[in-house]
Specification:
- It is a single chain.
- Helix content is about 70%, strand content about 0%.
- It is an all-alpha fold.
- It has one domain: Ferritin.
- Strands 1-2 form a two-stranded antiparallel sheet.
- Helix 2 packs antiparallel against helix 6, helix 3 packs antiparallel against helix 5 and helix 5 packs antiparallel against helix 6.
Length: about 160
């Protein structure tokens, strides 16, 4: 059974994740009373917005024949795996977790949640990467993963260098 799963669909999901991530950081920023904390979170939101732009550019660069590629999956394993990923994926941009945080939440709590969300995004993209056929430009998915890793490193660095948060 061939499963139509195109690079275009991967980019649509990636862009949606980044839109949600931006909303998450803006929501957490709105809960902050200290200008420095608010500013940092808004910078993270801006980075998510930049990721959206990058992914849109990448999506537009994909060759037309890549949009038509299907994966061969005789046992239906890729579909089951993708379904499990999608069901398990509720993290980056989960506004419910942002709303559950109390007013003037400690930035440290928000940043730990952000790292968790970014790591789940990375796992999600790795799962997607493993399901697309070789004819698809997996390097484009790798670029998405690299963008998310850069975010994790930045947030982890802030936590390490500012333990008082």
């Amino acid at each position: 059974m061939a499963i139509p799963f195109t690079i275009d669909e991967i980019f649509k999901v990636a862009i949606t994740i980044e839109v949600n991530g931006e909303a998450f950081y803006r929501k957490i920023a709105a809960l902050q009373s200290e200008p420095d904390k608010k500013s940092f979170l808004l910078s993270l939101a801006h980075q998510e917005q930049r990721h959206q732009e990058i992914f849109n550019i990448m999506r537009n660069e994909v060759a037309a024949n890549e949009h038509l590629t299907e994966s061969f999956d005789p046992q239906g394993e890729a579909a089951l795996y993708l379904d499990a990923l999608i069901e398990a994926y509720e993290d980056e941009g989960d506004l419910h977790s942002a709303e559950a945080l109390e007013d003037n939440v400690a930035l440290k709590v928000a940043l730990h949640k952000a790292i968790e969300q970014e790591m789940h995004s990375i796992l999600y993209y790795h799962g997607l990467r493993d399901t697309v056929p070789e004819t698809i430009s997996k390097d484009k998915i790798d670029r998405i993963i690299d963008e998310e890793k850069m975010h994790v490193v930045q947030i982890a660095g802030i936590l390490k260098n500012h333990p008082e948060m």
